[in-house]
C-alpha cells in the first residue's frame, strides 16, 4: 500500500486523529464503521423507499421511486444527478391468481398458493384445468414425454440443501423456473407449475423471470409455495389422475420508458476516473424489494453520504448508480454500459451490492492478478467491517456491462437466508436488520475510499 496524502481528507478532529498512511487509514475505516452503525441513515432511507411500494419495471411504483431517488440525491447535495432513460418491459400480475386441486365433481377443492412468473401470459378467465405431470428435471420430462400432452407440468426439484453456497443451489434449481414454460410447451403441456426456488420452508410462492421462445406456444407459468408443492406431490402419489385448475390474469403490455438514476461526489484530483457502486432499483411485485435490491442501492448511496458526514473528499469520482430493470433483462445496465464506452471516462471499478443486506463476509473481484492482490492487501482495513476475505469471483449483472473497468467487485454478505426473502412477499422492510445493513454500507465505504485514494 502506498503512503496516503493527508490533505485529501478533512475529518472532524474528534472522530479521527490527523494521522498519515496505514494508521490513518485504519482510523478512517473504524470511523466509517462507527458512523454507519450510530447513524443508521441508510436504514432509514430504505424505510422511506420501501414505503413507496414495489418497483416492478414500468410500474407506477417504479416511477415514484425514480422521482424519490432524484429528489433524495439532489437534496443530499450530490453532483451530476442524472436520470438515464432506458426501455423496460411492462407486465402486470392482475387480480386473479389462483390454483386449486379439483374435487371429484370438478369443483374448486383445496387451494394452492401460487404466483405468476414475470412475463408469463395469463389463462382464459375460467383458468386451465388439467391433470398434472410431476417431474424433477428436463431430462425426466423428455423421458416421460408421452405422458405430458394436455397436462400441467409440475417441476418440483428443490434447491440442493447440501450445497453450502445458496447461490450455487439457486443456480442448480432456477432453470426450471426460467425455461419451464418452454420445456412444458415443447412436450405438449398446457402450463408450467414450478416449485419456488427458496430456502425457507413456508407456503409463500417466489416469483422471478422466465422466458418464451419464438415458435414455441406460450403457456402460463407460476411458482408454487413449498408446503403446497409437497402437498400436491403427495396428492399426486395417491391419485395420479387428479386435476388442478390454474387461473392467472397477468398480461404483457408494450415496452415503456424508465430510468437508471445516479449521482456522484466528483473526485478532486482525478474527476474522470470513476468508481461505480450500485445495485438494481427495480424489484419484484410480491414484496417491496427491501433486500433485493433496495438495500443494495441505498448502501451504495450511503457510501457517498458517509464520505460527506466524515468530511472525506475522494481523489477519484465516486458514483452511486441505481440501475433500472435488472430483473427483466438488464436494460438499464445495457444503456449505462454503452454510455461508458463513449463518454470519455475511465471506470476504475464497478461494485455491485445485490445479495441482500445481511452481515458482511467478503468481496468477489474480477480483475488482473496484480489488481486482485492489491485489493487483497487492504483486508486488514476491510476487516474493521467484518469482511473476512477478498477472492476471485463474480460481481453483478449490472456493473458487468461497464466498458473496460479495471476491476469488477461483488459485495458478499452471509447469504444463508437470502433466498428466504428473494422475489417473494417475504422481501419487506421488517426483514432488514439495521446493523447488518449498515455494516455492509461501511464495508463498501472502506473499499471505495481505498480505491478512490490509491487507484488500482
Ligand atoms: Zn437482485
CATH class of the largest domain: Alpha Beta
Oligomer: single chain
Whole-Å distance between the termini? 11 Å
CATH-derived topology of the largest domain = Aminopeptidase
- What is the CATH architecture annotation of the largest domain? 3-Layer(aba) Sandwich
Question: What is the name of the CATH superfamily of the largest domain?
Answer: Zn peptidases
Indicate the overall shape.
elongated
Bound molecules: zinc ion
Summed up, the helix count is 13
What helical percentage do the residues reach? 25-40%
Low-pLDDT sequence parts? 1-18
Secondary structure topology:
Blueprint: H1 21-39, H2 41-50, H3 60-75, E1 79-92, E2 97-102, E3 108-112, E4 114-116, E5 128-135, H4 138-143, E6 152-155, H5 166-173, H6 175-186, E7 191-195, E8 221-224, H7 226-238, E9 243-248, E10 251-265, E11 270-280, H8 290-310, E12 316-323, H9 331-340, E13 346-352, E14 360-367, H10 369-376, H11 379-382, E15 389-392, E16 407-413, H12 418-421, H13 434-454
Parallel strand pairs: 5-6, 6-7, 7-8, 11-12, 11-13, 13-16, 14-15
Antiparallel strand pairs: 1-10, 2-3, 2-9, 4-8, 5-9, 10-12, 14-16
Helix pairs in contact: 1-8, 1-13, 2-8, 8-13
Zinc ion (ZN) binds near residues 280, 292, 293, 326 and 354.
